[in-house]
């Protein structure tokens, strides 16, 4: 276990480093740089063309070879410095510290919620397999899953925000609300996050519920459940003790990876809701060619993904000893 | 300008009268600049100014900004997060360009004039203007701001030797060469807000004595947030979601303002703005993009004002291309384009049809071409003139085969139109154009590419046949055709290497002569646009100015170095449920921006 | 964004259900082999799949899209500016533009229809790339084991750890692809990784089976073992995931077009959404909601088709879900009778 832990940790770190290097190189391949985007922005602001040249000239730096830039980036990263955002003129770390909690709040809440709903609904469907309820719930699950979450999000914005004015269409909170542990702030933040969370939960819970249903039905057919039945244990006890646990177990890895995926998906979701989280900044950084910010967001999302898979791998082995993930096999 | 004004300006007891005189001065000063359509007394107000015992209501006029309020800074030499709207209230403008009049309305600078054989440009300040800390706004402040602009590479550096203050109210630019006064006017007065108070900014001027590059860098990176206002409002608060300004009572125009606060709410994106103004959650918005169906959905209490942006969508041909470089093809293209249909497809509230394709903005064409206007070819602004186009092409040796035009070698006329992807209005226009081309028999297609790769590589490297591009340079100064003709003929500022012969070498040209049919009668005319525009920039003679403009405009009309398609309009919305504003399209509203200019003029008042 | 269905994919397809055969060294002609492949990979699974109601509906919807993308495009006039009056509401002039027109007079339905072929190509390319590559990496890693396994697993781990959507966006901006097949591949540029991982773990189990060992001891080559013994075993699973990948391609592609990251030269439902949202002011109550609704419906139904196919196939190929509670197996539900079918067909 210990050597596996060390190896697994080493691989996680290696992965983060490789991804960072890869993205660093890739980002430099994007056509047009921050200077060109600055010029474009100034043009659109109607700044005097000759002044634009002067401004752009002063921003220009001597081109440094990519490997030097890379070396500088890695060294400053090791000292905790993620660089300066060219577009926002703020330290990248400050932007990310400001944005990340919001994205995590929305996406983690959504993912937990959707799994809770999926597990309950899936278990119910399995229990009532073949009934009208099962058919209806299965159909609804499938139908909802066929909507991309951002399409539902757009629908929400149009109908619930614009037509009926029930929910805010944008932002993390209302003007004038100060962050802090106050009822006003918390309720306001939840109010603003309601639609983003709902659009993820509603579109993703369905397939998970169907998976839970499948797992449960399978478990119900296993020998040990039959034995339990023969022993005269109550249905409730069987459902919770045996079926629930064994059916939920396979979904555990899926849960952690889905969080990672959803954080990546925040790029679209936060754009639809103008919700300034890391996905929102990712898009801004991309269209403004803000290399440092883009790197920062990539790094954060990558780390989240790697760490969640890492946790999944490590803990899954603990929960279900039969599985030795990442185990080696004899070479053929 | 009349001399007796200054005596009355100092008479602080009669401010009301003074205000109306300012309006009057503007009219008098600009009367020579051609007629304005909506009557010359627009600025004198429709509502009538009420008595001086006006009470100031404790209400807030809510405007909008699309910048994050906490990040806004006010150093005009620093392009990052520079304010986009609040500075219009916090600081006094040197002068305000009125699009309807085609000229500047004096404001902080009350008078400007070329003196002493045109080697001095003299600015006279309005009296009684103070900073909010109590200091007077003096010539030294104005000089500081102009010096910083000059030192950091502003256009005035090209012809200004130095800037001196003659007395508290007078600033003088000593000129090194003769310059067309209108150019100086636009360079000195256009879009300048009295921001850089000497007390705060002098140290940056001094730094330029040493390492200029370092000084420029320091000036450029200075974030000015703890501002000292010179305008009728002061900066109260920069919160997360809004900027709050409150009324000063010691500004000369304070009496025109009968409400206490002006806030700018942060709204991100057009739809957010549509929703806010549609629900009347804000009282005014500026420079927003609202298509016709959205405007129609607004209540009657929302009034739209449009001002020309003096830039817009045109087609930039690559003059090295075998077909796009052929004048006959360009003329055929201009005939084929149904500009009105294109404008209506994009949204008639957003764009305007240029009456004639020429290197002068739509609203200024008649003003500058005067009697010659009727000689110009309009290429059918509201229809596809396919007959004329076909005739021109046939005369030039083209023929139509199987529905497609081919040149004398049998090569089909293939016209991909390059457009930045994601610019939805431009893409709609391009699609319409491509459909019109294909209907006529050109082999056209939409070639949408990333904006930054266009700006970074495709445009500088002439990697296009026809590209969507701005046919005007934009901003108030484009109203003086020198700038727009320069943009089309010599040196467009978007960096299109379009290989037009007369253009500058940086744009692929050789500054060559161009020969076009004569405008009056038969024969032809050969001219060198570069030389003529240089002459234009240096002459102080009004008639010569006009002659050269007509002549070079004719070149652009016949030779079509760029093909104008539509001109963008800037939309401003005012609400009338609680606010008195001038009637729609009043001359006084034809500025950037009605929502911030009208309060100073006593034309936007709280009515309860 | 669109999740991989880990929960499902983690469950191993049981072995009682095997496509194909044990290895046979009998030489066959090419046409025979082709017929074999057809039998094994198309006909039999098709027959099985058809027996499930969901697969049937999914196939019908998908077939409808294929019709739209081939015949429909040919029958229905392509969208063009000013082909019809501007801003018609749906059904306002049914025979001119049944689902209305945009502000520039383009037929909304025509736009949606003519976006279909590119979308189908994208889906096919993305699906084939994702599943093909995943099968390659997963089977080789799982079967070979050892250093090869470590190398390939690390490779797919890295691919999996790059945030999918942001990565695709960056690559899309770098390449600004217009060819739908290329777009499909870009979208699945790291989608295969998760799939490869679970295929690997299945192969790990399969390779211990006696017949695989038999083949190996008989000296059969690795490639042959993988192709003849292993792939047929995981084929049902791969097919299910092909459908999932297809849905992912649709969601991601439309999303990228919506964000304006991909070149807008071609028509796409995402571009329609974007135009309706940003330009036509569908949000601001300009009465242009239908311009959102039409592309939304097109996206939903094709996604529905793939979900139904995936669900149905998963169910059919995966008999574990057959067993019922308390032994009181009521066979009246369609599903139960359907799922009995495969054994008959296959054995």
Describe this structure in words.
The complex is a heterotrimer of chains A (332), B (608) and C (347). With 332 residues, chain A is an all-alpha fold. Chain A has two domains: 17-78, no CATH class; 95-325, MetI-like fold, CATH 1.10.3720. Chain A has helices spanning 2-27, 34-45, 49-59, 66-78, 92-127, 132-145, 149-163, 183-220, 223-230, 235-248, 251-272, 278-288, 291-319. In chain A, helix 6 packs across helix 8 (183-220), helix 11 (251-272) crosses helix 12 (278-288) and helix 12 packs antiparallel against helix 13. Chain B is α+β, with helices and mostly antiparallel strands and 608 residues long. In chain B, the strands form eight sheets. Chain B has a five-stranded mixed β-sheet with strand order 18-17-19-13-22. Chain B has a four-stranded mixed β-sheet with strand order 1-10-9-8, with no helix packed on it. In chain B, strands 4-5-7-6 form a four-stranded antiparallel β-sheet, covered by helices on one side. In chain B, helix 11 (339-346) packs antiparallel against helix 14 (424-440), helix 16 runs antiparallel to helix 17 (529-538) and helix 16 packs parallel to helix 18. The longest helix of chain B has 18 residues, at 542-559. Chain B starts with a helix and ends with a strand. Residues 1-53 of chain B have low confidence and may be disordered. By secondary structure, chain C is mainly alpha-helical. Chain C is built from 14 helices and no strands. Chain C has helices spanning 6-9, 30-50, 53-75, 108-114, 116-144, 146-161, 164-175, 180-187, 192-206, 210-217, 222-259, 269-279, 290-317, 334-346. In chain C, helix 5 (116-144) packs parallel to helix 9 and helix 11 runs antiparallel to helix 13. The chains are: A mainly alpha (332), B alpha+beta (608), C mainly alpha (347). Chains in contact: A-B, A-C, B-C. The interface between B and C is medium-sized, with 33 and 29 residues. Chain A: The chain crosses the membrane at residues 12-30, 102-127, 147-169, 189-210, 247-269, 291-312. Chain A: InterPro entries: MetI-like, MetI-like_sf. Chain A: It is a multi-pass membrane protein. Chain A: This is ABC transporter permease. Chain A: It comes from Haloarcula mannanilytica.
